[in-house]
Design a protein that fits this description.
This protein is mainly α. The chain has 3 helices and no strands.
Length: about 100
C-alpha cells in the first residue's frame, strides 16, 4: 500500500475529528475528536517518514503520543471537576464557573 493512501486516510480522520470538536457539545465526545485529530497527525508523520526513508517522523510521532497521554490525564481531570461542580459535561457550562 502506498504511503500516499495513508496521508489520504489521515486527512479524512482529521476532518472527522475537527467536525466532532466543532459540532458536538458533549465534552467527552469533543475530547475524543481531539484525540482522533492527534492520531491523524501521527499517521501523517509516520507516512511522510516512511516516504522519505528517515526515522525523524516516527520519533516525533512518539513524542506526540507522550504529550497526548499527558493531555488525556489533565483533560479528564478537568472534565470530572466540572461534572462534580455542575452535574453536566456540556461545553457551555464552564463559562458559567467564572463568577
Amino acid at each position: 500500500m502506498s504511503p500516499v493512501n495513508f496521508v489520504y486516510l489521515a486527512s479524512v480522520l482529521f476532518a472527522i475529528g475537527a467536525a466532532t470538536v466543532l459540532l458536538r457539545r458533549n465534552a467527552i465526545i469533543a475530547f475524543m475528536g481531539v484525540e482522533l485529530m492527534l492520531n491523524a497527525a501521527n499517521l501523517t508523520l509516520v507516512s511522510f517518514s516512511r516516504m522519505i526513508g528517515e526515522i525523524n517522523g516516527q520519533i516525533m510521532a512518539f513524542f506526540v503520543m507522550v504529550v497526548a497521554a499527558a493531555e488525556v490525564v489533565v483533560g479528564l481531570a478537568i472534565i470530572i471537576a466540572v461534572f462534580r461542580a455542575r452535574q453536566s459535561i456540556s461545553l457551555d457550562e464552564p463559562s458559567e464557573l467564572k463568577g
